[in-house]
């Protein structure tokens, strides 16, 4: 899944002001003897505190989210910019559609072109582009985004080392490589930041084609709605395996806490575990602890290559899941768009009767 995201160290809400008032300290007696003693104990206490924090923080979290995805500038400035962009793109209920790209996926004829084309040829989906925020992870992708779309956001590296890493973000990222995993967990933190800023989001992979508005399939009582590669028939069953490439979350205190615990759960799994696997193993416990309703979307409506919908009259989105390699995704998604065009060009009565399907086999689709 070609997915990208933001850095926690720059997008989290500003730290609240200290609860403690400033205190004036007076040194009584012989200051020449008391000050060194006070300094010694203060220094020892601070050292112990930093050692404790360093030992308890997840080293992988620090590297992947502070070094790789740090945004330049202060937190207030970054949050203000992001909040304004989200406000500009939001629907009346505060929902924003979010996707992310790098230079490889934004290249002419690549996934971004196919993604935007699907909105244009879908049924009632063109207007949804007004509510789409495209997150670019490199300057080349940002330039392309601004040439074709209104709402674009650049993730800025925090320092020179991160900048060097960001230079490589324009290239294709392969499934489950260290770079891929860094981006998946950083994307997870970025989504939490959107919730903390008070916006609902529908995150969509750039390799998902939109043919109808999928939000009509999201229950009004659902706090989280997520795709599944293989739907078991029960939208409330926590035995469904989640696919975070298509994910809707309402901004609530409970969902922010859900994300916080989801991220904390990473520490209980071996290094090299992606966020989707962690969610699949913890979603039953997390929903019960936090008190959120999690809905799994029917693949007949929001499906993909893993479990194809055979009825184009019901399809809202099509995901190039169960498929690796940029060239393979682009090849098969072009066929998907061609099949959709053939379907919508047919007479209404023919479409009503059904019988339309996807061209198979492809490089991934079968």
Automatic annotation (TrEMBL):
PANTHER family, alphabetized: EXPRESSED PROTEIN-RELATED, GLYCOSYLTRANSFERASE
InterPro entries in UniProt: At1g28695/At4g15970-like, Nucl-diP-sugar_transferase
Protein name as it appears in the record: Nucleotide-diphospho-sugar transferase domain-containing protein
Segments traversing the membrane: 35-56
Domain Nucleotide-diphospho-sugar transferase: 128-333
Domain of life: Eukaryota
Keywords, in A-Z order: Membrane, Transmembrane, Transmembrane helix
Keyword Cytoplasm tagged: no
Pfam family, any one: Nucleotid_trans
